[in-house]
Design brief:
Radius of gyration: 25 Å
CATH topology: Porin
Order of helices and strands: HEEEEEEEEEEEEEEEEEEEEEHE
Largest sheet: 18 strands, antiparallel, barrel
Oligomer: single chain
Strand content: over 45%
Number of domains: 1
Shape: globular
Amino acid sequence: MMKFLLLLPLLVSITYAEAKIQKSSILDDVSLQGHIDLRAQTYLRLPQKKHQNNITTAAILEIAYAKDEFTLQSKFKAQQDYYDLQSVEEHNNRTYLRLDEFYAKFDFDDDQILFGKNVRFWGALEVRNITDGFNPDELRDDPFDMDKLGVWNVSFSHYTESGEITAIVKMYEQAREMSALPYVYYYFPESVNGFAYVYTETLKTQEGKNRPSIYLKYAASTDTEYALDYAVIFENGYDSQRYYTAGLNAGGTEIETEENAYLVNKLSTYNTLVVGATLLKLEAVYADVISDDKISDYYHIGLGVEHTLTQFYDEADLGLLVEYYKYGIFDKSKRSDLELLELFQNDLFLGARYTFNDANDASIVGGTILDLDYDEQVYYVEYETRVFETLKINLDYRYVKPSSDSLTAFHLMGKHERLSLQIGYYF
């Protein structure tokens, strides 16, 4: 007993040292990265009853643990809108704390299993990725950023020499919150026929929010003279396109509107083909609506060409961009593109990207989007650079001239012109 008591301090010290080593080893497998952004926007032209200026701060934090074949990944986003700190009538309703990703992943020789919440990107075009429908858009952020909400799913992927086959089950269809009336990009009216018009944060679904959506995806690349990357996706489940319905509330005091999700069999593809200094792009969607009396079967096609003039000036490259989008329905008695607020129904994009190829990764991209049906135009130019490898600066100008006689989404938002400055600190 005495020998044990004499050895006890030594055993405790050894155990404590081993625990410290184990803790240090665990921390060695943990990575942390993120950025903090400050964005200031001012509107040179804007609709009535909208805020002329807007300031938001946002922070994104990614924490990952990786050990051998196992990875645990998480991603958080927090945003604070200046006006949400003011009186209620000034609120933009753009402040939130959001869990974007939280998933576990197991990687084997030729297979991968993932389950949890994550964001997947599908697409090839510059202005709008019409095949990128796995994750819903965030309705409280700048719509030109195309911020996405993470979704709960489980997937199995098998890798071949040239590509991968993936089966995904999305387990939940989620409702979305929306910004408030004073924010420029809120597009519902304040009132209709004397009744307040209110967006409700509910989602009406055909078979319940827990009805799974199933995806089968095949993606591959060719190792030939002309490099081709392609992906084909089949979905049975809730469509990424949603529509709104409105009616008087139970008390008859206001009009409430809500989102609706419907079921489809959907086939999508996105592709890029490199021919010399030219990149050809194709995205296409065909949706067979299973049973909804308001929504027609539809198609959506996007074609793009990007030609790069290398060393256009000194070390800089100039990319010339052209894209065309076409959306159509097969049953004209059902909701049209206007009623669905589809912006890219017959649109042409002409743009350019100037890449300085310097140490600061500076670039300028801009162009115009021309609506060939409703006489709308969007003009923009965006400059981005890095400073000291930790600061990222983004300058942005946009001018939206909506249709004067058609109820497009831009018409509902109103004509506006803005300047934006964003400074991000990366760690």
